[in-house]
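Bumping my old thread because nobody answered last time. Still need a sequence for this structure:
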């Protein structure tokens, strides 16, 4: 166990960056998980932490599964741990993992494409829906919130560790996908879409989820084999992108569980 009391210690500075800077993991090559829930989610998928960090008041009573989770333990005074935490109520424990390296696009895995979705809460919620409904790959176009940022990790509630995640992509990078693309947006008007409830949804497929204000970019939308809209009898102008994603991915999963419509829609 290593006790650190100085806020100027290089490790403390790095932890502060990882916790409070959304893109620090790209520069430092590490990811910060604060709290037991995210740690357990990682462990359940076979992801082991490199380093565990505890507030001093918790260290003496921390269970062995936490204190033996990593090969290295560091203890900080409670006030110093609170400084590095980005939570209103610090969890008093956190773990450092190796940041995922850049990965190749899997060409035939059911996929969700995030086209410049900027809100971290929306991105994390979409990752949860993707994992829940069997879409094992999420591809993020440049301009999307950083997938491994602390806010997206918290909103994802552990979904990250069951998904193949690739970020920083261009529209051309998606050409590798060997499956139909499906787009949904309120920006094209009701007569240019098929109602989701009436659509024959292919599997595997790639759902395109667009920017909160602008929707799916024209470049991607024109490549979609199918455009669908979600019925909104209440009359709201549009749905939050995370809500729309949950509805669409559930519809795909339900369709597939009933036999699916594999290959009925061909990618353009």
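Sorry it took so long. Here it is:
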């Amino acid at each position: 166990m290593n006790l650190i009391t100085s806020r100027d210690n290089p490790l403390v500075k790095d932890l502060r960056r990882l916790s409070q800077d959304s893109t620090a993991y790209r520069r430092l090559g590490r990811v910060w998980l604060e709290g037991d829930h995210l740690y357990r989610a990682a462990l359940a998928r076979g992801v082991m932490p490199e380093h565990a960090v505890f507030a001093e008041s918790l260290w003496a009573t921390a269970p062995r599964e936490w204190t033996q989770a990593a090969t290295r333990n560091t203890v900080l005074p409670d006030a110093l741990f609170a400084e590095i935490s980005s939570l209103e109520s610090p969890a008093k424990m956190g773990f450092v993992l190796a940041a995922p390296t850049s990965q190749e696009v899997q060409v035939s895995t059911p996929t969700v494409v995030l086209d410049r979705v900027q809100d971290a809460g929306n991105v994390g919620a979409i990752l949860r829906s993707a994992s829940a409904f069997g879409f094992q790959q999420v591809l993020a176009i440049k301009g999307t919130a950083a997938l491994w940022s602390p806010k997206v990790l918290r909103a994802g509630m552990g979904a990250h560790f069951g998904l193949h995640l690739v970020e920083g992509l261009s529209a051309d990078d998606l050409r590798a996908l060997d499956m139909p693309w499906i787009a949904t947006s309120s920006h094209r008007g009701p007569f240019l879409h098929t109602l989701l409830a009436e659509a024959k949804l292919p599997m595997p497929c790639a759902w395109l989820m667009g920017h909160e204000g602008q929707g799916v970019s024209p470049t991607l939308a024109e490549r979609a084999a199918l455009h669908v809209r979600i019925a909104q009898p209440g009359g709201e102008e549009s749905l939050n992108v995370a809500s729309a994603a949950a509805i669409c991915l559930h519809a795909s999963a339900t369709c597939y569980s009933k036999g699916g419509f594999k290959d009925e829609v061909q990618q353009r």
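The two ends are 58 Å apart (CA to CA). Let me know if any region looks off to you.
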